[in-house]
Every structure is written in structure tokens, then in C-alpha cells.
Amino acid sequence: MSSRDAQADTPQLLADARAWLAQDPDPETRTELESLIVAAQAGSAEAVDDLHSRFDTRLEFGTAGLRGEIAAGPNRMNRVLVAQAAAGFARWLLEHAEGEQPSVVIGYDGRKNSDVFARDTAELMAGAGVRAVLLPRLLPTPVLAFAVRHLDASAGVMVTASHNPPNDNGYKVYLGGENHGSQIVSPTDAEIAAHILEVAKGDIGDLPRSEQFEIAPPDVELAYVEATASVATTTAPRDAVSFAYTAMHGVGWRTAEAVFERVGFSRPVVVAAQRDPDPAFPTVSFPNPEEPGAMDLSYATGREAGVDLIIANDPDADRLAVAIPDATSADGFRRLSGNEVGAILGWRAAELAERAATEGAAFGALACSIVSSPALAAVAAAYRLDFADTLTGFKWVSRAPGLIYGFEEALGYLVNPQTIRDKDGISAATAFLDLANELAASGRTIADHLVAFAERFGYFASDQISIRVTELSRIGEIMAALRSTPPSRLGTVAVDHIDDLRDGFDGLPPSDVLRIVLADGSRVMVRPSGTEPKLKIYIDASSDQGSVAERRADATGRVAALADAMRELTA
Q1: Contact indicator for 75, 58 with CB cutoff of 8 Å
Q2: What is the tens place of the pLDDT at every residue in 81-90?
């Protein structure tokens, strides 16, 4: 926009900002917006640009709900936007109630304003005529996902931004009934979004509120602890493996501690500086176990204590990271990739299904997102289980028919779909520790088990490239170029075919994803990130020829060559 256009638009921009200010109940965001308005009126181009960033568009409500930086304006997370979302969702629930009063259970984590946004939601839902149940304290996202089914609620709302930067927050939506507590999918997101936009035409001060909402009893968390503890199945000693644990300044520790005690695992060595919820996340620059440096404190704790494993949850405890001792690493530990953890947990699920089969072969389905390792498909084939590729997100993974286990390479695992239909870092940690203790009973380690996996199923190598952009249009340009001029080779390997999922493919819903299949069986997936200004590229190759060392060298070499080729192609 030119400076002349910006000046011409300023009166309307200021009017929009004042209208927002008039309904904002939050003193912090009111003060912030008032200062911007005053500066813009005084001719500050910077303030005008900031207002345009906040008011030219709004955070889009989609299948992942809402997520963004806490600040004033419709393109930020704040009490006005949350009120509009809550009221819009309430209208959708009432519209689909089929004669019965709908219900919603609401959870929140330890991020800034999570408790405020949750209470606003409870009051607005109750005011609209929806039975609202607020969880009794800040709790992990998996407890909320569990509570939707446990309380037989029509829906669930979780206030969290998971592992986003400290000043972000978000709003995730789940549905009960025939959706079994999974997150929403299309077209439900668009229907809810339409109601939210209708609400946004008015003033949130005119929306009815009520304090006649319920506080869920403590036995909801206790029921979650019992159900999660039942994930552990080994008859071997359960306290043979020592481990360190970090909650990464999130809400995982108290619930995880209760589960670990109930199972009978050894008492973990806790990373004390990261144990308790802290919305500032003071010891990490980015509270995501995948980010460089995020697990440094847990490595130091693990080295000092000499533990066998490190278990890490992200701030809302729906993801799990695992590290194992590695003498070749300066840290003393190596964090396993999401694909490695996902593959061996999938093997465990297949083994359990086989043991449980009373007649004939094991039954059920293993599922993972299309960008996750093909290793899980190999496990399913070996055990004659069904296998499902899904779009990214547990809203899709959790809906695979006959699901007994699902995962996503971004540290997400669903090990107990009979009780929860979302990724769960605490139940996944329970399954992983159970496996580690079972292995320890026969003198083996997780590192040994990874070798055994490669021996049986082949060695699967993966890599991921993230291309961060300053202009979102650049992502569209790269995707358009790949479609208009598709590569015939990547490095020295010929492209066999390219699957374009833009209009749907092989039963998958439409998605902006390209799947490049190479002549040697390796694979490259390209898609825009759903939450960040990034283009993400996933590379996979496998080998089942020769020794494990030879398989590793072959697969990792091909992945490295493909990564170089994709960097050159998208530069």
C-alpha cells in the first residue's frame, strides 16, 4: 500500500480501532491500543502500519482453531476475539443441538491469559444457554481431550498455544458424539467461522454472560490418570529404567507425576528449573523440544544423574520428546526423531495387537500423517494390520477407521484411542517407558531396539527442511513453480511421479501438498506450514539390503542428496 493510500485509509482504520477499543475489557490491550491510536493520529507512519497489521484482517478460525500473538485487534489473540469465538461456537452448538441442551468442557494451560480466556468462554457459553463445564485448574491438553469423552460433552475447548513463542495463545475445538472427541475438520470449521463473523458485527458487551457454569470435579483428572496408567502392560519390573523429566515450563509435571507413580515407574529426576508453569518460558528461547537448545537443561540433568532416558513434554503436554545416551554427542544424549519414536511405538502397538488376538491374525489399523515416515506402513504390512495415510494433524489421524495407534513426525503420538482421540505426550511417555522397562528385563536398551527394528523392517532415514519467508506470497510462488515446471530429476535420481493433493487424492481431502516419488522409492513431500510462515519439505528413504550399518549409510546418504537437491530447487 502506498503512503497516499495509507493516509486515505487512516480515518476508517482509526474508526475500526476505536470501535474495538470501546468493547475491549482488558486493561493491558486497551492501553496498548489507545497508545497506537494517539500515535497514528499524530502522524506516526509506524503506528499506522501497526494498526493495519492488526485490523486489515483477522485471525482465521480453522480446523486448528485460533492461534496468534496476544495483543489488541482482530488479527491478534485477545479477550474480544475470544469472546467472539466463544459466542459464535455457542451459536453453532445450539444450531446442532437436535432438541437437547448442548454441553462444552473447557480447559486451559499455563500461558498468559489462558485462565482468563477460559473463564470468558465459560461465562459466554453459559449465557448463551450451553451447559459449560470448566476444568478445575490448569491442565494438559490431553486431559481436556479425554474429558470431552469422559463427560460425554457435545464439545470441548482448550485454551493453549502448545509450543508456540511465549506471547502467543490459542483456542482448540473438539467435538463429542459421533466425532468421539476429535478436533474439528472441514466443513465444521467454516460453519463455526461464519457464526463468529456474525457475532463480530456487534459489540461483545451486548453478549449475555452467566456465572452459572460448572467446575468439573477432580475425579476427571483422576480418571485420566487411571486410563493413562493402564497403557503400561509389561509384566516385567517397571522401575528398572531411570529417567529425567522436563515439563518445559508447562503444565505436564503434576499429571505426569501421578501417572508415573500409579504405574510404578522409577521416580524421575526432574529438571527443576522447568518443572512448574511459567508463561515467560525463561530458560528456553522457543519452548519446543524440537528446537535447538530447548533440551539443553534436560541433557545436563541427565548427565549429572546418569539416567537411561530423558522424557520431555512440550508446554501443554500433548507432545513427547525422548533422548537416549550417546557417547559420541557432546551433550551425552541424542534426541530421537519423531519418526524413530513413532516407528518403535507402532511396533509395540502391533505386538500388543498380535498378543491380544484370540482368533487368527491381529486386527486394527496403524495410521500416520502423509509427511511421517513410511516405517509405520512397513510395520503394518508385517503384522497384516490395516494402514492409513492421513493429512497432517491429529484431527485426521484420530479418525482413521479401526485405529489402534497413530503418530505424526512432529512428536505427536496417539497410543490409546479407546480413551482419547488426540496426541498425548503423557500416555506416549507411559508407553515408551513401559517398552524401555520391558527391554531392560532382557538386558536390552532402546538403542538396541532401534537396531532390531532396522534388522526386521529396514532402515528408514528422514530429514526436514523449513524455508522461512518474510512474504507469504513467496510460498505460493514456490508451490506454483513446482506445479508448472515439475522436476524430472532430483540430483542424480529420476522422478517417477508427482502426486498433487490440491484437489484431493486417493481418498484424501484436498490439501496444498505435493508428493514427489523418486525412481529408487525415496520420497519428498512439500507443503506450506499451517501455523508459521514456512514452506516445509519432508524427505524419506529406506534400505533393507546389507547389514544395519550398510542400510543406514545407504538411506541417510540418499536423504542428504535429496535435501541438497531440494534446497537448490527452491532457492
Answers
A1: yes
A2: 999 999 999 9
